[in-house]
Hints:
By secondary structure, the chain is α+β, with helices and mostly antiparallel strands. It is built from three helices and six strands; from the N terminus they run H-H-E-E-E-E-E-H-E. The longest helix is centred in the N-terminal third of the chain and has 10 residues, at about 5-15.
Amino acid sequence: MGSGTPVADARAFLRLHAPFSQMREKDLDFLADHVEAVRFARGEVLLAPEHGAPQACYIVAEGAVEAARQLGARRGAGVEPTVQLSPGDAFPVGALMAERPASSTYRA
C-alpha cells in the first residue's frame, strides 16, 4: 500500500473508502490494527458456498474480485456474474451477519 507501518497503511487505505471513511477514529484504529493482508492469484477462489459460513470479512485492497452465482440446482446449469468488487469493497457482509454460507462464489 504505502511506505508507513502496516497499520498506518491500512488506516490510510480504509480512510479513503466508505463506509470506513465514516467510522469513528477509535473504530477505524481497531479495524486497521486487526486487518491481515492476503494475496490471491488471478482466478483463485476466495470464498464459495461450499466453504460454509465465512469466518472473516474481506476488503478488496487492489485488483478486482468477481462474484458469481450458480444457476439452478444442477451443476451444469452455468453461473451468473452478480457483482464486480473493486478496492474498498467489503464482502460477504450478508453471510457474516446471518452466519450462513455465502450465496456466491468470489474469485480474484
